[in-house]
Amino acid sequence: MLLEAVYHRPKLNWSYAYDSETIHLRLRAKKDDLTEVYAFAGDKYIWNQSKELIPMSKFASDDLFDYWECAIKPAYRRLKYGFLLKSDDDEIWMTENDFSKERPPVPDRLFEYPFINPADVFKVPAWVKDTVFYQIFPERFANGNPDNDPAGVLPWGGKPERDNFFGGDLQGVIDHLDHLSELGITGIYFTPLFEATTNHKYDTADYMKIDPHFGDTEMVKKLVQACHERGIRVLFDAVFNHSGKTFAPFVDVLEKGEQSRYKDWFSVREFPLEVNDGVPTYDTFSFEPLMPKLNTDNPEVREYLLNVAEFWIKEVGIDGWRLDVADEVDHQFWRDFRKTVKAANPDAYILGEIWHESSPWLQGDQFDAVMNYPFTDAVLDYVVRGTLDAKGFANAIGRQLSRYPQQASEVAFNLLDSHDTPRLLTLCEGDKNKMKLAALFQFTYGGTPCIYYGDEIGLDGEQDPDCRKCMEWNPDKQDRDLFEFYRKLISVRKDLSVLRTGSITFLHAEEGGSKLAYERRLGKESVLVLLNNYDAGQTLEVPAAGQAWHDAMSGDSYETDNGKLAVKLPAYGYAVLTQSQ
Fold it and tell me: Per UniProt, which keywords does this protein have (predicted)?
C-alpha cells in the first residue's frame, strides 16, 4: 500500500452529516491500490458494545486516486472511527495519528464526529434536484411591451453589441411561458432585473427597483405568480460584489469625495476617485471604473444588501438568488446572507457564481450550490474540444464528485453555456449531434441542469456580446428537431427519478478512446447510459442484469446475452436504457 496517498480528515467533504441521522465517511487512496476498505466505528461511551466494521464502497475515482465512502446511522448521533485498509492479503489500521498493523485496542486515538447537531447539518432545498432550469437574458428574450423600450431601441434580431438595446422585457417573458411549459422547464434563472444603465444590468443603480425598460414591481409579481401557477420556480440574479456608476451612494462619493457619508460604502484606496493608466483609485469589478466594489465590511452596506435579499423573497415570492462574482465577497457576509434568506424562506435556493473548486463556500453556512463550471469544462473537453478521452472524462467527473458533500452535488447547477460563454452550438462548430451528446450527459447526471435560452431552437453565438442574441420566435427559423430532442430529454429525466438522485458508476470508460457507459442506480432501479463520442458508429458492450432493455430516448429494445448487453450506436449516438418490465 502507498500510505502516503491515503487521506482523511474530520468534517468538510470527508466526514459530514448528510441528514439529522446519517454521517458520511470518505477516504482517499492511491488508484487501484486498495481492494477493501472498512470503517471501524462505534460510540466512544459504549465502545465495546457498539464497535463494528462497516464496509466502504468506491464511489468515485480520478486519474490518481480512488475515493471510498460509507453511510453510518449512529444510535446516539456521535461517532468514534478509524479505518481498516486491505490490499489483497495485506492490511493496515488507520487512526487519527498513524497507521498500525494492530487493531486499536481503545478508541482514544481514533477520529471523532462529536455529535450531529441539527444546526450543523447542511440542508439544501429538495425541489432543486427535480428542477430543469432555463436561463433568460431579459433584454434579448422577447419584447412584449414596446411602450417601455429604451431610447434608440433596434429592430428585434439585429446584431448584438455591448451597448445596444432591442427592447426585451418581462411582459415578453409572460407572453412566451407556453414555450417553456411545452419544453418542460420548471425553473427560470433571470440575469439581473434591477435598474441599471447597461443591457446586461450587472451595474445596479437601484437594488429595490425593477428596471423600467423591463417593467415594475407589479409586473414582476405578475410574472412570478404566472410561473408558480405553471410549476416554474424563479431565481433572481444579484450583484452584491459591486454596484453601478449610477448607484446613489456612489454618485454621492463622486460628488463629495471624502466628505460623503457614503465614502466607506466602497473600497477607496485614495481620493479623488479617478482612473490612472486604466486603474481606478478605488476597487472595482476587474478594472471597470463603472462597477465600484461594495465594502461589505461596512455595517450599513451589509444591512442594505441583506434587506434587498429579504425584500424580493417576501414581497415578490422569488425562490432563490444567483449571486454574481460571489467569490470576491467576504465569507462572513455570505453567512449573514444565508441566515437572512433562509429565515425569509427556508426552501430558497442560494447559488453562487464561482468558476473553480468551491468547497469553502459549500459547508452548509453559505451557498447551497455553485455554477458548476468544472462540470462544464469536463463535458466540453470530452465531447467538444476532444482534449479528454472517455477515461479522462470519467476521472474528471469522479474528481468533482469527491470534492463536495453529497447534498451539494445533488443540487449543483450544471450548465454547458451561459451569457458569459460562447453558445454550445457554436462551441460544437454547428454539429448538432455533438450538441445533443453533451446535453445527453448533462440531463442523465445528478444536480440540476440549465438550458441557456435559445439553445433548444438552434441559437448560436460567439463570446459576449454575440452569445446574447435576440431569441428567435419565428417558427420557420427555429430548429424544431432540436426542440423535440430537448423536450424528450427533459421528459425522460422527469420520468426516471434515478437520473435525478441516483448514484453514478462508470462501467466502461476507454483510455485513449471515445466510448463511455455508466449506471445510475437508486435502490433496485437501474438505468444504463451509453455514449459514442466518435464520428462513426461503434458497438458498446456492458454487463447487464435481466433479459430485456428499452431505450427511453429512441424506443428501441435490446436483449442481453450471457449477462452482456451489446448496443450499436451511430456517430455521436447515445442510449438511455431501462429494464423492460
Answer: Glycosidase, Hydrolase
Under CATH, domain 131-243+319-495 is a member of which superfamily? Answer: Glycosidases (3.20.20.80)
Q: Locate cell 463622486: which residue?
A: 254
> pLDDT per residue over 526-581, tens digit each?
999 999 999 999 999 999 988 899 999 999 999 999 889 999 999 999 999 999 76
Contact 543, 576 (CB under 8 A): no
Residue type, 368: D
Domain 3-119 top-level CATH class? mainly beta
Distance between CA atoms of residues 307 and 309, nearest Å: 5
Mean pLDDT of 123-150: 98
CA distances from 336 to 42, 231, 317, 329 (A): 36, 30, 20, 12
Q: Is 472 exposed, middle or buried (0-12, 13-18, 19+ CB in 10 A)?
A: middle
H or E element in which residue 13 lies: none
Domain with CATH 2.60.40.1180 in the chain: 498-579
Grid cell for residue 149: 423600450
Cβ neighbours around 414 below 10 Å, total: 22
283, 324, 336, 368: the active-site residue: 324
Give the list of residues 6+ apart from residue 35 with CB closer than 8 angstroms, or none: 86, 87, 88
Active site residue 324: yes
The answer to whether 464 is a known catalytic residue is no
Q: Which three cell numbers stand for residue 63?
A: 486519474
Cell of 206: 437601484
Residue 216: the pLDDT is 98
pLDDT tens by residue, 153-195? 999 999 999 999 999 999 999 999 999 999 999 999 999 999 9
**pLDDT, tens digit, for every residue of 40-55?**
999 999 999 999 999 9
pLDDT bin (cut points 50, 70, 90) of residue 105 is very high
Burial class (CB in 10 A: 0-12, 13-18, 19+), 511: exposed
User: Phi/psi at 98 (nearest 5 deg)?
Assistant: -160, -175
Q: Which of 62, 319, 336, 353 is catalytic?
A: 353
| Domain spanning 498-579: CATH superfamily | Golgi alpha-mannosidase II (2.60.40.1180)
Give the Cα separation of 479 and 528 in Å (integer).
Answer: 29
pLDDT of residue 508: 94
